[in-house]
Design goal:
- It is a multi-pass membrane protein.
- This is Carbohydrate ABC transporter permease.
- Belongs to the binding-protein-dependent transport system permease family.
- The chain has 280 residues and is mainly α.
- It contains 14 helices and no strands.
- α11 runs antiparallel to α14.
Length: 280
């Protein structure tokens, strides 16, 4: 009996080792292109094009990044992208308020309105772009930062996740706060939001990624290059400097690395948030 248990433990450890080796090799294969991109961003163009490529830069330089900001207006693109991300976080607050209302307030037509919000998730974003563009054009918001930002402030998926999470908060806890004299806004700010930290972390990361990668809508709504985002600037870089691979690597690195860093730091919150939301 003991020998069988010992053999089972050995087999389990062997399976763990094999799984670890396979996952490590898979992770390295996935990471190699990103490592190559980042290191190539610090190489001169002549070194990138040499017949015997090297992983580590022989001549370490930051001239590619300097060129992006001095000659390609990447400073303007970065400013616009940061504005979009910050405004998206304001929209995240509105989504949390809407989710809280659907979860804890009883009003006529609540369920029907919530199902209507969910139904918008089934409509591809490309379908609504033309109507939204026409509406913003009638309002005089085309080719403005407000026109770039407004359509992304509210999202049905975000409202759905907040509603699912906040519906599990005990009503007795909220009633106790109200009996202590707390206003509805104070209950939301000082009680509901702190409890909702896991789902706030998930939505915050997804909001950052969506805002940082915004490409199609800014390209459609904005005609002025001063309103373009980093993604649009990277597309322009590819068109204007298609043969300068070092410069393209620098632009891609500038786009990708912040998202990778954010994901590495907050990956635990992402997994926990999705797990909790799925359980609700």
């Amino acid at each position: 009996m003991k020998s069988k248990v010992s053999d089972a433990k050995k087999a389990y450890k062997m399976q763990q080792w094999i799984a670890g080796i396979v996952l490590t090799l898979g992770g390295l294969l996935v990471a190699i292109p990103f490592i190559w991109m980042i290191l190539s961003a610090f190489k001169p163009e002549s070194e990138v094009l040499q017949l015997t490529p090297s992983l580590w830069p022989e001549t370490f330089t930051t001239e590619n990044f300097v060129y992006l900001f001095e000659n390609m207006n990447f400073g303007v693109y970065l400013r616009n992208t940061i504005i979009i991300v910050l405004c998206s976080f304001v929209g995240l607050f509105f989504n949390a308020m809407a989710g809280y209302a659907f979860a804890k307030y009883k009003f006529k037509g609540r369920e029907k309105l919530f199902y209507l919000v969910l139904a918008t998730m089934m409509i591809p974003g490309q379908v609504t772009m033309i109507p939204v563009y026409l509406i913003l054009n009638q309002m005089g918001l085309t080719n403005t930062m407000a026109g770039v930002v407004l359509p992304g402030l509210v999202g049905a998926f975000s409202i759905f996740l907040f509603r699912q999470f906040m519906s599990t908060i005990p009503d007795e806890l909220l009633e106790a706060a109200r009996l202590d004299g707390a206003s509805e806004f104070r209950v939301f700010m000082q009680l509901v939001l702190p409890i909702s930290k896991p789902i706030m972390a998930v939505q915050g990361i997804l909001t950052f990624i969506a805002g940082w990668n915004s490409f199609l809508w800014p390209l459609i709504i904005a005609n002025d290059e001063s309103l373009y985002t980093l993604s649009v600037g990277l597309s322009l870089l590819k068109g204007q400097y298609g043969g300068n691979f070092a410069l393209q690597m620098a632009g891609s690195t500038f786009m990708v690395v912040p998202i990778v860093i954010i994901f590495i730091i907050f990956q635990k919150h992402i997994i926990e948030g999705y797990t909790i939301s799925g359980m609700k």
